[in-house]
């Protein structure tokens, strides 16, 4: 396989985690751009990044770069993805790929038009464990899947300027941790949910802070999600079946699940390594380019964005950047 060369947009914790992953796997990182030049320089020195660019647009002109990694705040994901695709670069964009389904589809359509690979960075869509769980389900020994329960809560002190609590940054529990929960549902439900009922408590900034979401598909399967930005919850997902259940702790990057049978016996499913989550994504991105195909998980990511968009409509939550009209760059 060709050795692909990456450039990074952003110097926050997730971007530097990707820089570390690329560096540890002996990949060339041609450049980095961040509004915080200090942290960009620190990342460049630590991970052997060749150049710190003065602007995102300048970085896109580098002919040595094959893949642009986008790890910037949510509200500029679509804009940066579009610009990179227009510049002829493959794009790996951290979740979410845009703020709504329309933005997601614009990026996807342009990637297809340009014959470029576009990948959404939702870790659990690429963890080996979830393929092995699917194999267990297909054996039928647990019976039919009836319900999925997901809880996810993080304790974030209220700060109206943080990406968690700011409408301007596309914040809220749903777009941050809820995306993982919906992704888990879409991985295992036989069909996409078509009925959605929700309850939400909002922070004073207008973002969703705590919520309960119940979905159902045409097969009668139910998904039950509980989210919170200011309440600690178990980070877990449970697949509830006729003859047992499968419990997954730390599900966004999980490498272990426990199968519980009706007779009290248990089995452990182990697969992959949670510490290699970004490495799995990196390899899938490069394999998709090499094989000239869409990345695995992209269909699921689109379905997830459709559901997220419908939920926010129920909550009357709209991000300011969704109203901005800069899309004339798509020609």
From TrEMBL:
Stretches of the chain forming a coiled coil according to its record: none
Family the UniProt entry places it in: Belongs to the Gfo/Idh/MocA family.
Residue intervals of the Gfo/Idh/MocA-like oxidoreductase N-terminal domain: 5-119
Matches recorded under PANTHER family: OXIDOREDUCTASES, TRANS-1,2-DIHYDROBENZENE-1,2-DIOL DEHYDROGENASE
Gene Ontology MF terms in the entry: nucleotide binding; oxidoreductase activity
Keywords associated with the record: Oxidoreductase
Protein name as it appears in the record: Uncharacterized protein
UniProt-listed Gene3D superfamilies: Dihydrodipicolinate Reductase, domain 2 (3.30.360.10), NAD(P)-binding Rossmann-like Domain (3.40.50.720)
Organism per entry: Ileibacterium valens
Domain of life from the UniProt record: Bacteria
Residue span, GFO/IDH/MocA-like oxidoreductase domain: 130-244
């Amino acid at each position: 396989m060709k050795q692909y060369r990456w450039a990074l947009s952003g110097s926050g914790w997730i971007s530097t985690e990707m820089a570390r992953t690329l560096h540890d796997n002996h990949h060339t990182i041609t450049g980095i751009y961040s509004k915080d030049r200090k942290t960009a320089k620190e990342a460049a020195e630590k991970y052997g990044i060749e150049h710190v660019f003065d602007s995102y647009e300048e970085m896109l002109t580098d002919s040595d770069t094959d893949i642009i990694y986008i790890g910037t705040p949510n509200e500029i994901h679509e804009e940066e993805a579009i610009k990179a695709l227009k510049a002829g670069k493959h794009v790996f964009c951290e979740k979410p790929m845009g703020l709504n389904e329309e933005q997601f589809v614009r990026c996807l359509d342009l990637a297809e038009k340009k014959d470029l690979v576009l990948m959404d960075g939702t870790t659990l869509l690429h963890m080996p464990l979830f393929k092995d769980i699917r194999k267990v389900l297909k054996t039928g020994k647990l019976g039919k899947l009836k319900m999925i329960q997901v809880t996810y809560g993080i304790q974030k002190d209220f700060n109206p300027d943080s990406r968690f609590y700011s409408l301007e940054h596309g914040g809220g529990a749903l777009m941050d941790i809820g995306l993982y929960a919906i992704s888990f549902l879409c991985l295992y439900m036989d069909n996409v949910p078509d009925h959605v009922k929700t309850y939400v408590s909002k922070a004073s900034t207008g973002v969703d802070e705590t919520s309960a979401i119940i979905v159902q598909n045409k097969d009668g399967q139910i998904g039950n999600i509980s989210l919170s930005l200011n309440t600690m919850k178990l980070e877990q997902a449970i697949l509830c079946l006729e003859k047992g259940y499968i419990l997954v702790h730390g599900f966004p990057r999980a490498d272990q699940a426990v199968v519980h049978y009706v007779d009290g016996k248990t089995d452990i499913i182990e697969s992959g390594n949670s510490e290699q989550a970004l490495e799995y994504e990196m390899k899938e991105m490069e394999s998709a380019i090499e094989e000239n195909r869409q990345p695995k998980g992209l269909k699921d990511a689109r379905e997830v964005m459709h559901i997220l968009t419908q939920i926010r409509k129920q909550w009357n939550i709209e991000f300011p950047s969704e109203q901005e009209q800069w899309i004339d760059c798509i020609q």
